[in-house]
Amino acid sequence: MSFDHCRVEISAGLSFEDTKIKNLARSHPFTQQLDLIFPSNTVFQNALETSLKAPQYVKLQLSLSKIVADNASFIQKYATQSGISFLSAGSGPKFSTQEEDVWCIDHRGVLTLSVCKDTYDALGLAGKRVAFGKGKAKQGDGRHVISIPLYTKEAESTKVRAQREAAFKRWEERRTREVGSPLWNVLAFSESLSAEDLETTLRNLATDRDKIYFETIQVQCQNNVSTDIHIPIVQLTLRPQGKDASAKEEVEDWYETIEELFEWVGMAGFGATRLKANDRVDPFVAVYDPPSPSRVGNVTHMRWSGFIGPSFVQSLIGTITHQLSQSPPTDCLDFISLTSHACIWSPVSYISPKVQQGAMNVIPPLRDPTREVEDSWCLIMTSGHVGEKEGENSCAWVLAESVGKHDARFG
After folding, report:
1. Structural contact between residues 299 and 231, judged by C-beta atoms closer than 8 angstroms
2. Which of 58, 120, 160, 313 is 20 to 30 A from 32 via CA?
3. In the record, what terms sit under GO molecular function (predicted)?
4. Domain span including residue 171
5. Co-location of 271 and 363 in the same domain
6. From the CB of residue 3, how many other CB atoms can be counted at a distance below 10 Å?
7. What is the pLDDT of residues 278-326, one digit of tens each?
8. Does 376 lie in the same domain as 364?
């Protein structure tokens, strides 16, 4: 395994209070899968099950033109106070992530559209062209991203608002002709409302609320235990500094060690038999050596799949860091890995921690959600060694963030 350093960014730190860890969940507004892997530990697993509230989300149908027409009150009633975020999921009777036109409303209170050339030309709204590569490829296929801060209604002229509302009404008329309905299939979650309040709020927002599709889904955790596998003994360090030949060699060794750890995490997530202590595969067919040093034991894999918001991810990270920092040595885990996979069909998958609430002072990276794109991160955390003070554990973490070539986040 070898990282593509143009598409993967590695960072490391010695404190769980680092801003990178504190802002990690908030920077990724829409998550579709979380994988937690750790050496089996009943104390930690019980702490998770008792402290974490299962996330939930709603599938429903909405009129986008209604949201745009009522944008200022929408932000006040729904997005800001209730922490509700939305992501489109196709049209018609089935929810789909394979659509040419997609949109979302994230926790900034900004509506972002990613639309094909025909839709962009028909809307007549200003947007930014999405293109990657060089030469002719840089011209793109006509896809554009349109960002509409819904909170600015009072600062806009009546003419601008009327033009935008008319554009969305024309879009709904076109969608009615093409797919049979102006409504969008939408996924929604709230960072603060209960299941009952969320349902009430969304039903009040929906058009013809008695006839539309509406379903509340609770994300269930799936547990799996792999027995008798090679488990690495993790000792994390910061990346070596320096520019001389010796330092460069140390950096290469550091990256090799980190890559081996992340490879192990990936294989454990797939339940690869190569990790089994009694694996006897033909070396001419498959060759794999676990990170060294290692031990043989059991590994627990917990997975959450659905439409998951930043608050649950941050709660999960908080529970992990608390256990690693505060648990006595007899109960403490050697390490924990947490892997997150974004909703890759979203026009926005990363929001800078520097962004202001309800503002666009830092624009999200351009991306093409219709391509086969990757957007994931993996965080490995360890309790480290006992510190100078009795009972105090020094902690360390390493984070790998990966995006596909149709995402401009890393250039």
Report:
1. yes
2. 120
3. ribonuclease MRP activity; ribonuclease P activity
4. 56-218
5. yes
6. 15
7. 877 766 766 778 888 999 999 999 999 999 999 999 999 999 998 888 8
8. yes
Question: Widest CA span of the chain, in angstroms?
Answer: 73
Residue whose token pair is 């975020």: 85
Burial class from Cβ neighbours inside 10 Å (0-12, 13-18, 19+) for residue 153 reads middle
Give the 3-state DSSP-derived string for the chain, with helices as H, strands as E and coil as C.
CCCCCCCEEEEEECCCCCHHHHCCCCCCCCEEEEEEEEECCHHHHHHHHHHCCCCEEEEEEECHHHHHHCHHHHHHHHHHHHCEEEEECCCCCCCCCCCCCEEEECCCCEEEEEECHHHHHHHCCCCEECCCCCHHHHHCCCCEEEEEEHHHHHHCCHHHHHHHHHHHHHHHHHHHHHHCCCCEEEEEEECCCCHHHHHHHHHHHCCCCCCCCEEEEECCEEEEEEEEEEEECCCCCCCCCCCCHHHHHHHHHHHHHHHHHHHHHHHHHHCCHHHECCCCCCCCCCCCCCCCCEEEEEEEEEEEEEEECHHHHHHHHHHHHHHHHHCCCCCCCCEEEEEEEECCCCCCCCCCCCCCCCCCCCCCCCECCCCCCCEEEEEEEECCCECCCCCCECCEEEEEEEECCCECCCC
pLDDT digits (tens, 9 = 90+) for 242-259: 778 788 888 899 999 999
User: Amino acid identity, residue 5?
Assistant: H
Beta-bridge mates of residue 38: 300
Strands 335-342 and 375-382: antiparallel
Amino acid 204 reads N
Domain final residue pick, 162, 195, 218 = 218
